Amino acid sequence: MTILKSGFVAIIGRPNVGKSTLLNCLIGEKVSITSPKPQTTRWQILGIKTLKNAQIIYVDTPGMHKAESRAMNRYMNRIAASVVQDADVIVFMVDATSWRQEDEMVLTKLQESTKPVILVINKIDLLENKADLLPLIAKLKDKFNFAHIMPISAIKAEHTHELEEEIAKLLPEGPQLFPEDQVTDKNIRFQAAEIIREKLIMATEEELPYATTVEIEQFEQSEKLTEIGAVIWVERPGQKVIIIGKGGARLKKVGIQARRDIEKLVNQKVFLRLWVKIKENWTDDDKALRGLGYE
Ligand SMILES: Nc1nc2c(ncn2[C@@H]2O[C@H](COP(=O)(O)OP(=O)(O)OP(=O)(O)O)[C@@H](O)[C@H]2O)c(=O)[nH]1
Ligand SMILES: [Mg+2]
């Protein structure tokens, strides 16, 4: 195999437009968690795609949102901004069904970039009439000189192959940067924590998805079994009560769902133990954030 082109492709946009769904679709594996709730992704996550002549390194990012006061939100916005700076190609993703102020904010940040930007309009499967896209396209064409404008559906893999072809054309010349069988930069431990967080986000409402993080305390793999002990950190005693649920029902459900997904990931039986603990105000405490892996 001869790799002639390689580079980093930042996938950016406001929360919930479908960035992580696109990453998983392009890689053909679940490397980044997704949910119907905004601000799901909190880290930069690489999805590595090795083609015959090129290696594309997609970078999933936290959705950029209005600067909030909490340290956690500042951290997420900072990651997204730094990924943009280091990228060779930028995929700016918006939702075909709604243009918001936060989209405008992301676009403003892109004005400074000298890299090619592809506008990806996602969720076109939700449109009754594809012609409904035309006003949005016309408006955005006026605002920025995009390298391409591509309407897609990440969830149905519609036009995602064409998107990849256009991305590959824009990559700079370069060597193979990762082994060809590697699909992400994250290890199984990280992915297990993320799977638990995804199930928690799905099982909780209102502010709770944003007040939780998962820390793997024990991770032991033997020939037949992976044993995992994880702590779910929350900010307040009331949140702990909610996550545990009546008679432990909610925590049990989260554990069962997470275990099933982790078993698929490691291809063997998993024994998963979950604890819920309180670290007051961790989302707004820089030191606590660093301690929990947000660096
Ligand atoms: N109908 C439809 N839904 C989609 C599509 N792509 C993503 N979604 C849904 O949109 C929601 C958000 O998807 P994510 O991939 O988590 O969005 P994200 O941009 O990564 O969100 P953050 O990580 O919060 O920034 C999920 O419920 C997805 O299933 C699509 O093409 N069509
Ligand atoms: Mg995401």
Written overview of the protein:
This protein has helices at residues 19-27, 71-86, 101-110, 133-143, 160-170, 188-203, 208-211, 237-244, 249-266, 286-291, and strands at 5-12, 45-50, 54-60, 89-95, 117-122, 148-151, 213-221, 225-234, 269-278. Strands 2-3-1-4-5-6 form a six-stranded mixed beta sheet, with helices on both faces. A three-stranded mixed beta sheet has the order 7-8-9. It has two domains: 5-170, Rossmann fold, CATH 3.40.50.300; 188-291, GMP Synthetase, Chain A, domain 3 (2-Layer Sandwich), CATH 3.30.300. Helices cover 37% and strands 23% of the residues. A hairpin with a 3-residue loop joins strand 2 and strand 3 (54-60). It is globular, with a radius of gyration of 20 Å. The chain contains ten helices and nine strands. It is an alpha/beta fold and 295 residues long. The longest helix is centred in the C-terminal third of the chain and has 18 residues, at 249-266. Bound molecules: guanosine-5'-triphosphate and magnesium ion (MG). Guanosine-5'-triphosphate is lined by residues 15-21, 34-36, 38-41, 62-63, 122-123, 125-126, 153-155.
Helix proportion of residues, in percent? 25-40%
What is the CATH topology of the largest domain? Rossmann fold
Order of helices and strands: EHEEHEHEHEHHHEEHHEH
Derived structural class: alpha/beta
Order of strands, main sheet, comes to 2-3-1-4-5-6
CATH architecture of the largest domain: 3-Layer(aba) Sandwich
State the end-to-end CA separation.
Answer: 36 Å
Net shape: globular
CATH superfamily of the largest domain: P-loop containing nucleotide triphosphate hydrolases
Question: What is the tally of beta strands?
Answer: 9
Q: Which ligands appear in the coordinates? A: guanosine-5'-triphosphate, magnesium ion
Main sheet properties: 6 strands, mixed
CATH class descriptor of the largest domain: Alpha Beta
**Gyration radius from CA atoms, angstroms:** 20 Å
Q: Roughly what fraction of the amino acids lie in strands?
A: 15-25%
